[in-house]
Specification:
Blueprint (H helix, E strand, L loop, with lengths): L1 H22 L1 H6 L5 H12 L1 H4 L4 H21 L12 H13 L9 H4 L2 H28 L4 H10 L1 H5 L1
C-alpha cells in the first residue's frame, strides 16, 4: 500500500522533471514537483528497511560499491552543461540510495568500511554547512576573477571547509 502510494508520486515527478528540464531548466531546478521523486526514493529506502536488512551480504557489498561508484561518477560526469535535474539526477540519487541500502548488511567490506572512518564522519557532520558555503564562494570567486578553472574551483570548494566549520 505505502509502496504504491510513494510510486504514485515518484514516477510522475520523475517524468515531469525530465520533461521540464528540457523545456524550462531554471524552473525545473526550483519547482518542488520536479524534485519530489528524489524525496520519494529516500522514502522507499526508509520504508524498505526491514527488507534491506535481509539482503545477502555479498549482494549488499556489490550494491554498496556500485552505489559509491555512481556517486563518484556523478561528481565527474555532471557538469555545468548537464541539464539538471532531469534524468541526470538519477545517478547520484540512486547511487546514494544504494549505499544506504547496502549499509544494512554489508559491514566493513562495503563502503561503510571507508565512510564510517573518522575523517569521513567529520566531513559528513559538516555536509550541510559545506552545502551552504561552497556555492556562494564559488560564484563570488568566479565573478571576481572572471571565471574559474577546475583546479581553482576545487581549491575554493575545499576552502569552504573553513567557514563551514566556523
Amino acid at each position: 500500500m505505502m509502496l504504491g502510494a510513494i510510486l504514485l508520486v515518484v514516477i510522475p515527478s520523475l517524468l515531469w522533471s525530465i520533461h521540464l528540464t528540457g523545456a524550462n531548466p531554471e524552473r525545473a531546478f526550483f519547482v518542488t514537483t520536479t524534485r519530489l521523486w528524489e524525496m520519494g526514493i529516500g522514502a522507499l529506502v526508509a520504508i524498505g528497511s526491514l527488507h534491506w536488512s535481509r539482503l545477502p551480504r555479498w549482494s549488499a557489498i556489490a550494491l554498496g560499491w556500485a552505489g559509491l561508484i555512481a556517486v563518484i561518477l556523478s561528481g565527474l560526469l555532471i557538469t555545468a552543461e548537464t541539464a539538471w535535474p532531469g534524468y541526470a539526477a538519477l545517478l547520484p540519487t540512486l547511487g546514494t540510495a544504494a549505499v544506504i541500502i547496502a549499509g544494512y548488511t554489508s559491514g566493513s567490506a562495503g563502503p561503510a568500511g571507508i565512510l564510517a572512518r573518522r575523517p569521513a564522519v567529520w566531513v559528513g557532520g559538516l555536509s550541510y554547512s559545506l552545502y551552504l558555503w561552497h556555492w556562494p564562494l564559488l560564484v563570488a570567486a568566479a565573478a571576481y576573477w572572471g571565471g574559474l578553472s577546475p583546479l581553482s574551483g576545487a581549491v575554493i570548494a575545499i576552502g569552504s571547509v573553513i567557514p563551514a566549520y566556523l
